[in-house]
Amino acid sequence: MMKPILSVLIDTYNHECYIEQTIVSAIEQDFPASEFEILVVDDGSTDRTPNIVHKFAPRVRLLRKKNGGQASAFNAAFSELRGDVVSFLDGDDWWLPGKLAAVTAALEENPGIAGVGHGYYEFNEATGESKLRKAPQPLFVDLSTPEAARKCWLNLTHVHMAAFTVRRSVLDQCIPIPETLIFDADAPVAMAAMARGALVLDQPLFYYRIHSNNLVGGIDQNDDIRLRRRYEMGDEMFEVLYSMLLRIGVPRDSVSALLDEQWVHHTRQMLSAYGGSRIKAFQTEMRHFRCTCKDPGLAYRLFKYAVVGATTFAIGPRTFYRLRDWYGRQNLGRLREYFATSGETTGHK
């Protein structure tokens, strides 16, 4: 077989109910079979998933590994991929016809972009309902400026990270992905592509399946253990993205504009619900302070550090965030405004 133009990477773990539909949706693309390969990396499944994948050999190659999570699966597969372009697919989702033709055409027509995303249908297995998620028109996203980074984040609702197709050079930048990312490991790949410029197509080209075993979308809100794990993994994802984007050359102010506000919101929710490190709470509030107060006066800066430092370390995160909510309801922000106003002069002497 000639060297393929494109590699399809399917990561899977205990997807025996879904993996056949996933693979068939890739095989049946209206794209020359000689020009794309399909690699399934099995992250230590304990069900019949590997047996089902074997049925599609030699058209589909199977790489089996010890269970370690999505990042470890991507890392293991990287050296096995032969295409100059890589398209990702999770083992419980499936593509619509025309997916590969659309994304490869976009890459050929736009040689300066690093990746292509697109809309999708969010399919709820329990209800049988599908919701369309797509941009109203094609979008170009990058992280060259804080304004561009904010626009990028606003448009992430129109694209699923797992739906990205990227040039091989993007993986050269972000692999290996820290293997602490048991899931959400597709986010660094998509963000690395966006950092160099990516196109989001205004058409849905795959189905994202929500089911009871989803690590992200299908968790019962009463399942406290899995909810906490999701919060912790989300926090880890922000850590990984922040350091990776800086490492590959994205300006710090663009990284902050992209991630800070969402990171603060996520971590506040996690600490409020489950508690955690006092240092984590202090760092979170200082991150919020830096991204909302660009030029604070000295009095206000000292006030903020003193109040947040004393309260987070003295009473702990859960109590701190309950008091913070009470503070907001009592309209005590006027005290903060007094210090902010008085510091406008003293802070610049």
Sequence-ordered SSE layout with sheet pairings:
Layout: E1 6-12, H1 19-27, E2 36-42, H2 49-54, E3 60-64, H3 70-78, E4 85-90, E5 94-95, H4 99-109, E6 115-124, E7 129-133, E8 139-141, H5 146-154, E9 165-167, H6 168-174, H7 186-196, E10 198-210, H8 224-247, H9 252-274, H10 278-292, H11 298-315, H12 317-329, H13 333-346
Parallel strand pairs: 1-2, 1-4, 2-3, 6-10
Antiparallel strand pairs: 4-9, 5-10, 6-7, 6-9, 8-10
Helix pairs in contact: 5-9, 6-7, 7-8, 8-9, 9-10, 9-12, 10-11, 11-12, 11-13
Task: Provide a compact summary of the structure.
The chain has 349 residues and is an alpha/beta fold.
The count of β-strands is 10
Helix/sheet category: alpha/beta
Number of continuous helical runs: 13
Kindly give the count of domains.
2
The outline comes out as: globular
Question: Could you describe the 3D structure shown?
Answer:
The structure is a single chain. Helix 6 (168-174) crosses helix 7. This protein has 13 helices and ten strands. It has helices spanning 19-27, 49-54, 70-78, 99-109, 146-154, 168-174, 186-196, 224-247, 252-274, 278-292, 298-315, 317-329, 333-346; strands at 6-12, 36-42, 60-64, 85-90, 94-95, 115-124, 129-133, 139-141, 165-167, 198-210. With 349 residues, it is of the alpha/beta class. The N and C termini lie far apart (72 Å). The protein has two domains: 6-210, Spore Coat Polysaccharide Biosynthesis Protein SpsA, Chain A; 277-349, no CATH class.
Features:
disordered C terminus; alpha/beta; 2 domains; single chain; 349 residues; Spore Coat Polysaccharide Biosynthesis Protein SpsA, Chain A
